[in-house]
Every structure is written in structure tokens, then in C-alpha cells.
Amino acid sequence: MNIIKRALFVLLILIAGLSAQPYGQKLQNAARSIDSVSKSTVWKGYHQYQSLYMKGLLENNKTLQIEALRGLVKASSKLGLDPTRYKNALRLIEPKNPQKKKSKAAKSSRSAKEKKSETQKRDRVVHLLEYDMKKIAKIAGLTMGDKALNVTLSRPFSKKNVHHFVLKRKARYLYVFDIAPVRAPFSIKRYKGGAVKEVRIAQYDPKKVRIVIETKKKYKPSVDIKDRKMTISLPAHKKRVKTTHYAQKKKVPGKADRKRSHIPMRIYTVVIDPGHGGKDSGAVGYHRKMEKDAVLAIAKDLAKILKKRGFRVYLTRNSDRFISLKERTRMANRKNADFFISIHANAVPKRRDFLKSKGIETYFLSPARTARAKRVAALENRADIANIDYFTKNDYLHMLNREKIIKSNKLAMDIQDQMLKSVRKKYRNVLDNGVRNGPFWVLVGAQMPAVLIETGFITNPTEAKRLFNPYYRKLLAQGIANGIANYIYRNKE
User: Residue 182: helix, strand or coil by DSSP?
Assistant: First the structure.
């Protein structure tokens, strides 16, 4: 009985943990779908479990992986599919029971009354958690004026739901307001103006929204709450600040203004990823020149240009060090990046192809459709995915980033076009190898438009020399920056 009680306790904790997260409801929906008598509904549940399994892999959430794989095994059996690969994956991560397995007779000795009691307890936990989630308010509107930040919620609120504290960071003050339980319909919003250096509103955890007012001078903020509206005072400022609404569409500058400045209407965050690094030299080309060195120099040039144009920029590495492919996009996700740009240099293995293989090309994430894409992807992926099984690789590529593929494709086209225009001002013979799709592992998991740029062939003598020429690298960087700016303008991001 003690073993049963412990197992029940673990089960309840597991259910509570899953239900409290955004994935809890999704798991329940998938379970209901595969219990349906409709085959199309079962297929829906099957695909829901696949998506959840991918998310579990991406976030290293083993509990989510286990629950999703169990669902996939059950759904596969109902649909007449072979569940072996799911069972094998489940066997690798499912926790081992240190105690001896009970005999079938011992397992069947549990009375129907005990089973019913456990089911009732589990259902009660799920019901309470679902009820708790329904009480969470949502942000319905935000406006920032010259005197205050106004937050409109979906239901009445009180001051006891607001926790306020102040942090001192060198020459600035951070006034932090945590409001809970609240959810925002966005990942993060930023405002500037007046005496405020920046105001940031973001989803801090599944139930809490954090508002940070960053100032250079100290002030005493006040919080006023009336029904569904919360007002936070801002530092006094003489000049009037134009009111900004988070739901409003920003005015797009005219064509002449865009060409002159390329400065975004709001602050965009770009994560630049210089490929390879450290123990992974990347391709080694003409005169033993290394890909990792060339792409780092281009990335640094690009970072300088983007910062001057008003972008917020991060590099996955700014020195010669190794970073795993997964960690690169994880950084982009943690920084809430608007764009992920991975910079590489191409190569061919055979000496007879050194001279004829040349040109610039830009890739976006998609299952490979050509032998060329597979070859290039294999070259860039080899760093640290040798131990990832075939099932994981292929399901990742077919199921993640589906909603971002179109945006990434558009971004790739703009960058490819502007890179060529930039370098051809002085180097007219640069070959356009076009925009392609490929299974690049470094792009997997990016929650924003993401591209991988092959800036030239390091095995080609001419292009290798250019990649180590500071002037040519600057032209490449300017082209990439112009491509990002064009994408923002065309898509009104």
C-alpha cells in the first residue's frame, strides 16, 4: 500500500505540474482527441502529441516528452501505425523503477474501489487547476502618455495583485511592477519617451506579467487601480510625449526616408550567430583559412552597423569559442529576438571543384529537397548532432517552425538581394546562388524569422581572399543590414 500511495502522490504531482503549465491543457485536449471514435479526430490528437513531443525536446522537458510519447504510442495503435519508434524513444527517457516489478497477480489485487478513488482525486486536482487558470486576467490594452502608463485588464483588479520594488543598476533605476495572475497577448513590448529611458512589459511566467520602468533619475511612482484599469505614474517631463498604443499600427516611413536611414520605427532585436568556433573550425579552405575566423569578423561588422541604425544586437559568440547548435537558437529565444542571422562560409570537398564552386546563397529552415541543400546542411550540422537519432532529426525538421517558414523565406530573399547589390558595387562578378531551403540544425527551434547565410566559398581562392578582406566583409555586412531593414519595411513588422 505504501508503494501505491507513493505512486499516486507522484501521479498527482505530475498532473498538477503539467496542468499548471500551458502544456497541461494541450495534453488533455490531445488525450480527448485520441479517445474519439472519429478517425480524423484521432489523427488530430496524434499530431498534437507530435508537436508536444517536439516542444519537450526543444525545452529539455522530459516530463512533457514522456507524456507525449505515451500518447503517440496509444494513438499509433488506434490508427494502425507502427509505434515501435515511439516505444524506443520512451524506453530511453522513462525513469527506471529501482524496486522489483510486481507480479501480475499483485497488480490485479487492487480493488475497483481503490482505482475509483485515485481517479476521483486526479480529476479533482485537474478541475481545481483548470478553475485557477480561468481566474487569470488578460491585458486588453496598453497606452503610454507623458505622465502615466495605463494598463487595461479583462476583469476587475486590486492593489493586492501588484508587487512593486526598485533595483539600482549603476547610473539607472529599475522600477519593477509584478502583476498576477495576468497574461499578456504578446511576449514583450517596449516604449521610450519623456524622462523614461525605457518601459518594458513582458510575460515573466505563466501567471505573472512584469512591468519595468527604467529611468536615469530617481522618482516616486504611484499606482492607481479602478475596476479594470491600472495607472502607473511616470517621471515628470516638460516636453509632451506622443501617446503610444500597443495595438496601433506604426506609421511606415516613406521610401526616401527608408533609403536614407534604415532606422526601425521601434527597437528590433537581432541575434547574430557567427558559425562554428573553438574546437569546431568549420570549413578549412584556401591557404588553410578557417571559416570560423571569417564569419566572426563579418558578424562583428554587422553588429556595429545594426547598432548604429538603432537595433538591439547580440552575438552568440564574440570570440573563438565553441557553442552547441541548440544553444545558439536558445539564446535568440531568451533574448526575445525579432531576427536570427547565422553566418557561414561554404566549401566543397574535392579539389577539382574549388575554382568552379563560388557565389553567395541564403537558406531558411525546411526539410531538404535537393542534393545541394543536403550537402551544405550536412557540412554545417556536423558539429554536435552526431548522437541525435534519425527520428528526432526528421520530426524536428517537419514539425517545428512551420509558422515561421514563410517569414524566414521572405527575410532570406531580402538579405540575398541586398547583399548582392552591396558587394556588386565594387565586385561585379559575384555569383548569385539564390535563396534555398535546407535542414540546418542551428535554425531549429528559433521562434522568429531565421536564416543561414553562406557568404562565399572558402575553398575558392578568389572568394577566400575576399572573405578575409575587411572592405569586402563590410560590404557584405551592409548588405545583410539593408536586407533586414527592407524586410521590416516590406512586411510592416
Answer: strand
Q: What SS3 state is found at 93?
A: helix
Sequence-distant (6+) residues with CB within 8 A of 86 are 69, 72, 73, 76
Nearest Cα to Cα of residue 347 among 312, 313, 382, 303? 382
Contacts of 194 (CB under 8 A, 6+ apart): 146, 234, 235, 237, 239, 241
All three cell numbers of 297: 569578423
With helix as H, strand as E and coil as C, how does 339-389 read? EEEEEEEECCCCHHHCCCCCCEEEEEECCCCCHHHHHHHHHHHCCCCCCCC
φ and ψ at residue 189, rounded to 5 degrees: -130, 145
Instruction: Render each residue's pLDDT in the chain as its tens digit; 493 residues.
Output: 455 555 444 444 444 444 444 578 888 888 988 888 888 888 888 878 877 877 777 667 788 888 988 998 998 888 888 888 788 888 888 876 655 445 545 555 556 656 556 555 555 544 443 434 456 888 888 888 888 999 999 888 888 889 999 998 888 899 999 998 888 877 678 888 778 888 999 887 777 899 999 998 899 999 999 989 999 999 987 655 444 454 433 444 444 444 434 444 478 999 999 999 999 999 998 888 999 999 999 999 999 999 988 899 999 999 999 998 878 888 998 999 999 999 999 999 888 999 999 999 999 886 555 555 555 555 555 555 444 444 444 544 444 445 578 889 899 999 999 999 999 999 999 999 999 887 777 777 777 899 999 999 999 999 999 999 999 999 999 999 999 988 988 876 5
How far are the Cα atoms of 191, 200, 243, 481 from residue 210, in angstroms, in the given order? Answer: 14, 8, 21, 32
Answer whether 272's CB lies under 8 Å from 452's CB. no
The 3-state DSSP class for residue 177 equals strand
Give the DSSP letter of residue 121.
H
**In 3D, which of 61, 59, 83 has the Cα closest to residue 72?**
83
Q: Are 254 and 172 in contact (CB under 8 A)?
A: no
Report the amino acid identity of residue 269: T
